[in-house]
Records
---
Amino acid sequence: MNPILNPKIRWLVSLSLAILTIFLVLKGLQLWSYGSDVDGSGIGVFFLGLEINDRVLEVNIPTYAIGFFIAGLCTLLLSITILTRLLFKSGSRTPI
């Protein structure tokens, strides 16, 4: 049996992706809320303790926010895809 097909692993991956989606959207909302409330030449963008960029100019902050929103949407769609494949059998569209 292939370990990738194990339903427990699929649930774990789907849950992890859903949590990552929440973090990505929250970071996007945080960046979006900065607006023009930036002192100095820019801000540093960190995600999960990792530095994305240390000097993001004020005009580029909405671009980073949109990027986090798009990444969150991608992880959400992937999580939904894994869940639907888990809940429905491949051959028929009936719940397990």
Note: The beta strands are 43-47, 50-56.
---
Amino acid sequence: MPPPNPPQEFRQYRRLVLWTILSVIALGSLYLLLSVSVSLYRRRHALPAGDEVSVRVSRAEMASCFAELRDVSVALRKYLERSHHLLANDDADELQRWADEGAVWRAQWMGLGRRCRLAAGTRPTQARKEMEAMAAAHEELGNIQTTYTEALKRFAKDLVPRLGRLDKRLAKLGEAIGTTGSPSGDKE
């Protein structure tokens, strides 16, 4: 026996429900794609925190620059702390993510220097002592990031291959002795 045809009086309502559901799904998908795109853009491109400070820097502008300098300092500390995960494994995706975060931090750091006129020769004349101190801290942050990154690259270039060779030698030694397991402590 064939299934009965649904009543024609509900056809308009079913169509309305169908279009409503499809619209909600389409809008939700569009929102998700837009959200991911904005997140990726913001992650890769630093947005300036405000307008450039005036030549006659006010206390409010100085406080704003100081707060941003402190934020950039905290961001550098977090960025450098995440490098320890790079030493634990050789995941290329993790390395790329760390490099991208470094580029974002560097852009924020340079944006802070431009906005607050911390580059040499562009400092405001008012509140010179405080601005000089902030400029010195700003420069030091850049030097720390550069030095740390160079040291990490040197470690990856020089020591990681040596550790890999050592792991292989210890694995062979472990096989000769009859012991199994990774010399580095990783689970195989």
Note: Residues 12-42 form one domain.
---
Amino acid sequence: MPVLLLLTTVALSSALCASAADHKAIFTAIMRHDHVVGTVFPVTIVGNYADAGVSRASGNTSESVLLVKKNGSWKVLAAGGRAYDVGSMERYGIPTAAATKLVRVVHQGVCAAPD
């Protein structure tokens, strides 16, 4: 059973975690939205939607940022102090299936820093 769990986690992380290029584009979108960003990690992507963990340059606070990819560019939908649930993601226009998957993967903590 542990082997199956490990394989599931690896499959989720490789399919849903941001590539280095997407991570950079998402960091840039968040910087355009809010210039006081320290680090952006982890970044989970489902289709054209992303949930990014953001810490402030001061290191005192962290938040979750929701993004959408439109016309090839990432745009910030919402930025808040807490992780988003499925209902709040739906209110920002993220479809239920994508929101459910984002919440599940974010809570599992399977995304690692990009290469």
Note: The longest helix spans residues 2-16.
